[in-house]
Amino acid sequence: MIFPYIDVEEYLHKDHNCPPNAICRNVPGFFQCRCARGYTENGLNCTATPLTATNSVNFTKLSVDGVYEVYAKCTPWSNDNGFCRALSKVEIISVDSYIVRVQLMNVKSSLGVNVGHLGVMYNVADESNFDVAYFRPHENNRCYQVGYVVNGRWMKVRASSCPNGPAGGLAWFTVRVMVNSNKTTDIYLNNGLVTSVASYFGTVGRGGVLVANGYENIIRFRNFSLTPSV
């Protein structure tokens, strides 16, 4: 999308007519509107592309509206292959704080319906570098675990109990991750604060759903959203 452009002040103050989710670029005599990562040019608009499966055996949208299922059968999680991901291609641009929300369900694993490692990735620089918060339905003392992945290597920061206990299998639970401008992140389970942790990566408005394990695990998720903080 290329538009005539004369006024430098208009460009600097973002008074251009680029569509939402587009980045304005100044070129001599014009300005260009390029869709941000995760958006596709559709005429004069930028349309969001959906979540994409990364390193998952199976990633499907069920017949039930808005419900996705990830069949994760990963290799041991000492390296990048241990993380099955449904990563949002969408990135919120020019933001210093944002919120990731999703509803998750642990369907089953090779060790039972209450065993799994499912959660959220955020501050996603790329598919091998991101912050992580995930939940373990099978453990009271290590209900959640937070950390980060650097060049595909998992680095654990903390694991502890949840104030209201772990989320059980075969039941929907809500995860909310609030990435703050001061590089701290607040992790919520069903609207209850679980922990606050320092982010390893700088603020990147991109996230997704993650299954971290070294065995078979089937999860479902719905109502995934990535929004700027108000």
TrEMBL record:
Pfam families according to UniProt: EGF_3
Keyword Transmembrane helix: no
Superkingdom of the source species: Eukaryota
Domain EGF-like: 7-47
InterPro entries: EGF, EGF-like_Ca-bd_dom, EGF-type_Asp/Asn_hydroxyl_site, NELL2-like_EGF
Keyword Iron: no
Native species: Stylophora pistillata
A GO molecular function held by the record: calcium ion binding
Name this polypeptide is given: EGF-like domain-containing protein
Entry keywords, A to Z: Disulfide bond, EGF-like domain, Repeat, Signal
